[in-house]
Design goal:
Distance between the termini: 66 Å
Shape: globular
Radius of gyration: 21 Å
Largest sheet: 8 strands, antiparallel
Number of helices: 2
Structural class: alpha+beta
Order of helices and strands: HEEEEEEEEEEEEH
Length: 157
């Protein structure tokens, strides 16, 4: 076998190995997620890219909804409130939570936040890290009330 044929075989082998590694890495990422990433949220209640995977929809028997939200770095909700409050479970990454008039809190994997009823707040990812959360929201007394955008100044303070 001449040098040219050996080189072609070597390059093809390297390419196949690289593709196989990429598929393995994607599979490893998917397996490391607790819940699926979900679909891109396409409404005006978020700044940046966030993804939602609904796990439980509120109904006439259980009026709680449960959703897994993945925020890309810098992504966040608008200010909003819930008539019955909300519970946020930090699953991965680094995020923020802030109630109107209070300092911003850093959220890390394993943190839990109990958002009080009717208190405007926002949550999302830090500037340099994705943030994954599970949000548990009661729908007994109505839907989420969406408010104004969280400005860059508010986000960065």
């Amino acid at each position: 076998m001449n040098f040219k044929n050996r080189l072609v075989i070597l390059l093809v082998g390297a390419a196949l190995f690289s593709c196989n590694q990429k598929q393995t890495n994607n599979a490893e990422v998917q397996q490391s997620l607790v819940f699926p990433k979900g679909e891109l949220i396409e409404n005006n209640n978020f700044t940046g890219n966030a993804y939602l995977s609904m796990m439980v929809y509120a109904d006439s028997i259980n009026k709680n909804s449960v959703g897994n939200v993945t925020f890309e770095p810098g992504a966040r909700t608008n200010w909003h409130s819930h008539p019955n409050g909300q519970i946020i479970l930090a699953i991965d990454g680094k995020g923020y939570y802030q109630e109107k008039g209070s300092p911003k809190k850093i959220l890390l994997k394993g943190d839990v936040v109990k958002c009080p009823a009717n208190i405007p707040h926002w949550h999302g990812a830090s500037e340099d890290s994705e943030f994954i959360q599970v949000a548990i929201t009661s729908r007994v007394d109505g839907p989420t009330e969406w408010l104004e955008v969280v400005t860059d100044e508010e986000y960065l303070e």
